[in-house]
């Protein structure tokens, strides 16, 4: 039986996040965009309400929420501000590899503290010359006794400046390509870690994005996740949990843009009547509404699949690219509906347009998502073609 009805608990979670976004995030969004100030106090309030780290298992002090439940939260938070939402959600991306592949001791040491106080973490995989091409990373970790000596650089790392620990992907066998990659949890206080300056990005400006340099960092061998050579698989598995949440955030931004555009179109008059009465405008609004509904359902589907213990790589890529491209289009159309006012920083849709672009870039570009989807399609067709003798 297919049922899209939320449970009472899910409705409460959704409402809690919605009210928090309206009360605590939306009124402060412009300030954090203008100043680039990290929203620590907003995150603290969200953490106190249980709106952060929700997917940490109950055995380690967390709420043990599923991806579906976390997607409900992500959409509502993002409707207030995706920059603040990204600052909050970056924890989920860093924690996901531990949830997927960490042993009991690693989870107790790094996940449990996240539920006891406000702590930030960062997912450090991207490098200056290796973004979409994760297999092209150059960071290396050499085993020496009971430690790994870590050397390399990471770039565009969200929460890098505020994180207490990093999830790091490095080569332990440089000759083996992606099969020679290993995953580590690296505490911030280890000697040899240098965090770069905060990047002043086009959008989501209060998100703390920086480079990190590792110089002869001695990482205890007990902080290796899984085993040597499992890093690439662990890193990609984490995306199956987090891409639906990124998509949900894109839905939240799109919903906010649509609401601003619809409200303005009813108030703004041209040629003697509200511009909403013009078919050109009403059709733009209709396209926004239908695409947001479609993206939300795709998001719920991808989240539901992984919550059932099934692989959702294809579905996560589908919703990631669909929602990301949609967010850019809807935010741009919202600016168009506002006309000259939309181009001004005095009105909210200008910020939404800038904030939307990163959805097509982080956690795998829209182009990479299409590569993943096409490969899944062709692999699915191969047995059918073979059976047909083609």
Can you tell me about this structure?
This protein has 390 residues and is an alpha+beta fold. It has 3 domains: 8-116, Butyryl-Coa Dehydrogenase, subunit A, domain 1 (Orthogonal Bundle); 121-232, Butyryl-CoA Dehydrogenase, subunit A, domain 2 (Beta Barrel); 235-382, Butyryl-CoA Dehydrogenase, subunit A, domain 3 (Up-down Bundle), CATH 1.20.140.10. Helices cover 53% and strands 14% of the residues. It contains 11 helices and 10 strands. A hairpin with a 2-residue loop joins strand 9 and strand 10 (273-274). Helix 7 (231-267) runs antiparallel to helix 8 (279-307), helix 7 packs parallel to helix 9 and helix 9 runs antiparallel to helix 10 (349-356).
Features:
10 strands, 3 domains, globular, 11 helices, Butyryl-CoA Dehydrogenase, subunit A, domain 2, alpha+beta, 390 residues, single chain, four-stranded antiparallel sheet, Butyryl-Coa Dehydrogenase, subunit A, domain 1, four-stranded mixed sheet, Butyryl-CoA Dehydrogenase, subunit A, domain 3
| Helix fraction by DSSP (H/I, runs of at least 4) | 40-55%
Strand line-up across the major sheet: 1-4-5-8
Number of strands: 10
Query: How many H/I helices?
Result: 11
Name given to the CATH homologous superfamily of the largest domain: Butyryl-CoA Dehydrogenase, subunit A, domain 3
Q: What form results from the Cα inertia axes?
A: globular
Average pLDDT, all residues:
96
Order of helices and strands: HHHHHHEEEEEEEEHEEHHHH
Structural class: alpha+beta
Indicate the low-confidence ranges by residue numbers. Answer: none
- What is the radius of gyration computed over CA atoms, rounded to a whole number of angstroms? 22 Å
CATH topology of the largest domain: Butyryl-CoA Dehydrogenase, subunit A, domain 3
CATH class of the largest domain reads Mainly Alpha
CATH architecture of the largest domain: Up-down Bundle
Strand content: 5-15%
- Major sheet: size, sense and barrel closure? 4 strands, mixed
Gap between N and C termini: 37 Å
Number of domains: 3
């Amino acid at each position: 039986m297919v049922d899209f009805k939320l449970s009472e608990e899910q409705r409460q979670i959704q409402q809690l996040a919605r009210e928090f976004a309206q009360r605590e995030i939306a009124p402060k969004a412009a300030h954090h965009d203008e100043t680039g100030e990290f929203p620590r106090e907003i995150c603290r309030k969200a953490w106190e309400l249980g709106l952060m780290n929700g997917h940490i298992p109950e055995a380690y002090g967390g709420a043990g929420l599923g991806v579906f439940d976390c997607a409900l939260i992500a959409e509502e938070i993002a409707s207030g501000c995706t920059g603040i939402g990204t600052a909050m959600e970056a924890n989920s991306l860093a924690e996901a590899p531990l949830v997927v592949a960490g042993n009991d001791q690693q989870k107790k040491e790094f996940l449990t503290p996240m539920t006891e106080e406000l702590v930030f973490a960062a997912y450090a995989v991207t490098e200056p010359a290796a973004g979409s091409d994760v297999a092209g990373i150059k960071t290396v970790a050499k085993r020496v006794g009971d430690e790994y000596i870590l050397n390399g650089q990471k770039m565009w790392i969200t929460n890098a400046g505020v994180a207490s620990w990093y999830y790091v992907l490095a080569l332990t066998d440089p000759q083996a390509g992606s099969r020679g990659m290993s995953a580590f949890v690296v505490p911030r206080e280890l000697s040899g870690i240098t965090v770069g300056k905060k990047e002043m990005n086009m959008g989501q400006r209060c998100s703390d994005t920086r480079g990190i340099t590792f110089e002869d960092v001695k990482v205890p061998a007990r902080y290796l996740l899984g085993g040597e050579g499992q890093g690439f698989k662990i890193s990609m598995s984490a995306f199956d949990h987090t891409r639906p949440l990124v998509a949900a955030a894109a839905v939240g931004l799109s919903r906010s843009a649509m609401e601003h555009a619809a409200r303005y179109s009813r108030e703004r008059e041209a040629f003697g009547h509200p511009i909403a009465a013009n078919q050109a405008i009403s059709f733009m609004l209709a396209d926004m509404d239908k695409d947001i509904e479609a993206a939300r359902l795709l998001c719920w589907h991808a989240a539901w699949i992984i919550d059932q213990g099934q692989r959702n790589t294809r579905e996560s890529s589908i919703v990631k690219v669909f929602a990301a491209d949609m967010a850019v289009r809807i935010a741009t159309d919202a600016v168009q509906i506002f006309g000259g006012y939309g181009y001004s920083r005095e009105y909210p849709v200008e910020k939404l347009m800038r904030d939307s672009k990163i959805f097509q870039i982080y956690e795998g570009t829209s182009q990479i998502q299409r590569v993943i989807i096409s490969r899944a399609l062709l692999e699915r067709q191969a047995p059918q073609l073979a059976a047909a003798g083609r």
